[in-house]
Design goal:
By secondary structure, the protein is mainly alpha-helical. Helices cover about 50% and strands about 10% of the residues. A two-stranded antiparallel ribbon has the order 1-2.
Length: about 90
């Protein structure tokens, strides 16, 4: 039991150390400002979190009468609901 806890604790520490490296932003040649990519588990795809996605998050919160907060602070259920909503409400280009 004690060995299991130590193993899980070491995995958590390793993930905490690796997380900032996986989110680092590198300047792209076309001048895009994408800094974070978010994985949508249900649809199995990635989304670039940029100003348009931030705007869509605000529209989602307003439409669903939810208090304003950051996507990163939303629980997993709310994030899944957002991506379901987002796939049915794409950007107009």
């Amino acid at each position: 039991m004690n060995i299991t806890r130590r193993f899980i604790a070491s995995l958590v520490v390793a993930a905490a150390i690796a997380a900032p490296v996986s989110v680092m932003a590198f300047p792209s040649p076309d001048g895009a400002t994408v800094q974070v990519r978010v994985y949508d588990r249900n649809h199995k795809d990635y989304h670039n979190w940029d100003d348009r996605e931030n705007h869509a998050w605000g529209v989602y919160l307003t439409t669903n009468h939810r208090p304003k907060h950051e996507y990163a602070r939303a629980n997993r259920r709310e994030q899944e609901q957002y991506w379901n909503w987002r796939h049915s409400h794409p950007d107009e280009r």
